[in-house]
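Before the break, one more example. Copy the sequence into your notebook; we will annotate it together after we see the structure.
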Amino acid sequence: MKKKFAPEMTAPDFAFDSPWKKSLSFYDFPKGEKTILMFLRYMGCPICQMKIAELKNDWDEFKKSKLDVLVVLQSDAKNVIGINEIVKENDLPFTIVLDPKEEIFKLYGVLPGSIFRYATPAVIKKAMKSKKLGFKHGVNEGKEMQLPAVFIVDKQKKIKYVYYGRNVSDVPDNSELLDISANL
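Here is what the structure looks like once it is written out:
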């Protein structure tokens, strides 16, 4: 098992592709004061689609706070580009990081959970909400029981905030992330 990270540890660099660009580097990428590195399961997951839509809707607040956002998914490009109308080139103001082999997940110690972290009341509630909002399950990729995580990293590549999800839908709300970042 890879180690879990804590505040003040150095965030490891990694190479990645986005759905539209190849050979990018985490260390070369950030332009803001801080970067939110968010690990979600995969693009076919309705709960993940809902979170991505929330990030998009709240983007002006992230921009005002001088935050970059990278969303790491266990997806490949064709499944990200082809899902609903959420993802089109130049439509997202943040970057999707493709990690179909789960190498970045492992590098950051973001591991799958068990059935007890998959079938929880919180997950069922978010799944019902995503369905009500019209998000549909797409292609299964990666690990269905993959847990999420969020890291806030400063310009010196120091991790300032770490959150490892307790279940497959457990990601802090955008307002919480904005508040936390403002107080770091």
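Residues 46-57 form the longest helix (12 residues). The CA atoms of residues 43 and 79 lie 7 Å apart. Try to locate both features in your own notes.
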